[in-house]
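Researcher: Please translate sequence to C-alpha cells.
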Amino acid sequence: MAASGQKVGYIRVSSEGQNTARQLDGITLDRVFEEKVSGKNLDRPQLEAMLAYVREGDELVCHELSRLARNLDDLRRLVQTLTGRGVKVTFMKESMTFTGEDSPMSTLMLSMMGAFAEFDRSLLLERQREGIALAKGRGVYKGRKPCLTPEQAEQVRRRVQNGESKADLARFYSVSRETIITLGGQRRVVGGLGAEGWVHQSQFSGSEHSETIGWPHTRSGFRGEGQWKEP
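Model: Translation complete:
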C-alpha cells in the first residue's frame, strides 16, 4: 500500500439537531465528508462522494463503526470494498484498523461489533414503536410535526423547479436533503455496492434507469466530487 495517500474522514449523525463536533476531534485530516442522515442504508450523498474520492494508499477514518453503517451487511461490504481498493479503514472508538490483509480474528471482531450496532438500532426502533403504541392508546399521539409549513413547502417546490441546489435549500430550511428531494418531486439518486463498483439508480418522474461506475485497477481517476475523470 502506498505511503503517500490522504487521510480522509467520514462523519455522520442521524439528524440535523445532533452535533458532529466530538467526532474525529483533534485528528488531522486531508479531507472530511460530513452528513446528517440515517445510517440505515447506503443512500447517503456524502458517503457516495467519499467512495468516489478515496483511492489506493488513502486511509478512511471514522469515529466508530456505527457512523459508517448501522447494518452489518452494509458495514462488511463497505469495509471489504474499500480495503479491496487499497484503502485502509480505521475506527477510532473501537481501535480497529482494516487493510485487506486482516486476521480471521479481526474479521470476526468486525462482524461482532457490527452486529451489536445493528442490534442496538433494532432495540431503539422497537422502543420507539412501543412508545407510539402507548401514546396512541392514551389518545395523545399526534404524529411527527411537519418540518416545514405549507407555505415553505410550496417555496421549496418552486425553488427546486427553478434549478436551485437541493443541498443549499436543505441548509437554508434546516431540513434533510431527502426532504427537499421529496417536496421537489425531482430526481432521486440511490446507490448500492455492486460487483463492478458503486451502482447509482436514478429515479425521475416515475421512470428509472441505472448506471454502474466501476473502479479500475489504477483507481487514479477518482479524486473529484463523485465524478470520474480519465487517469
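Researcher: Any highlights?
Model: The longest helix spans residues 104-137.
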